[in-house]
Specification:
Bound molecules: uridine-5'-diphosphate, magnesium ion
Oligomer: single chain
Radius of gyration: 25 Å
Subcellular location: Membrane
InterPro entries: Glyco_trans_2-like, Glycosyltransferase_2, Nucleotide-diphossugar_trans
Pfam family, one: Glycos_transf_2
Strand content: 15-25%
Enzyme class: transferase
Protein name: Glycosyltransferase family 2 protein
Number of domains: 2
Number of helices: 11
Length: 331
Amino acid sequence: MDSAEGGAADRTANSASARARRGALLSVIIPMHNEEAALGPLFARLDEVLPKDVAVEIVCVDDGSRDGTAAALAARAATDPRLRVLLLARNFGQEAALTAGLEAARGDMLVLLDADLQDPPELIGEFIALWEQGYDVVYGIRADRSRDGFFKRSTAGLFYRVFNALSDVPIPPDTGSFRLVDRRVVEALNGLPERTRFLRGLFTWVGFRQVGVPYVRPERVAGATSYGLGRMWRLAVDGLTSFTTAPLRIWTAVGLALAGLALLYAGYTVLRVLIHGREAPGWASLMVVMLFGFAVQMIAFGVLGEYVGRLYQEVKGRPIYLVREKIGFDR
Ligand code: UDP
Ligand code: MG
């Protein structure tokens, strides 16, 4: 466990006394997909609650919005020197937009924030205080999700349970992307070569000193969620396939179990013929066994396909995102 010891040594070197918000730069990274309606309330709130005793840059990543988000950001950047804007070439998805922001930001500590004010920016001060105490990752825990809707809550709950049962690196339940991360963690993350970026998993995988802060997740301030059923399913499958191969391996066990059952049934059939003589019926049981067998095979193929497809994505080596335009980075 060399790396763990190295981490421990780093920790003492970078303990409380070495970290102070004064003189440090805070990057607030905000991915945006069709968030025009949320921009007004968002910036008003940020102006109100962002800590005044630390230098701030706000990195807004427009993830191929179809509304006026990009134009509004460009206009705002012309008057707000804290603002840096990345316009992505198309919609690459939230994880890709966050990756773009993490690679472009220059802060000593970086905060990932949703544009819709579902991640209360008031907490950033508290996050920074914990960072000063030596924590490298301070993540928000959605303690109260009663505003999230029954369906979203139950599917999210199920996902975290399945994920943590299968994955080698369990992620704290009810976390999202909302967190503060030290520069060293971001460097480690930016160095990871994989293209499917399930960030809340990767942030756990890198380790370092982590702590959670519970908060009540409010409703979206304006606009509509980008996550329909299809996107939620894709994110869940991305997360699972990036962090566990258990869905692949399970079919060995299922196959063995079914083969065992088949053997038992074969023995029973032979015995029955020996005792009662040959008999014609059995169509129904045959159909059941066949249909069930086919279904199981289909599922196994489907799971295989998910992994092969992702292998293919990784091997092609296309970039995670493309930037169409950068605004405010020369300041
Ligand atoms: N987002 C993005 N690209 C996407 C989808 C979402 O950058 O393809 C951003 C979105 O603008 C918001 C954040 O990711 O700032 C969270 O998205 P949303 O609020 O739609 O998700 P929910 O809170 O409903 O899970
Ligand atoms: Mg939201």
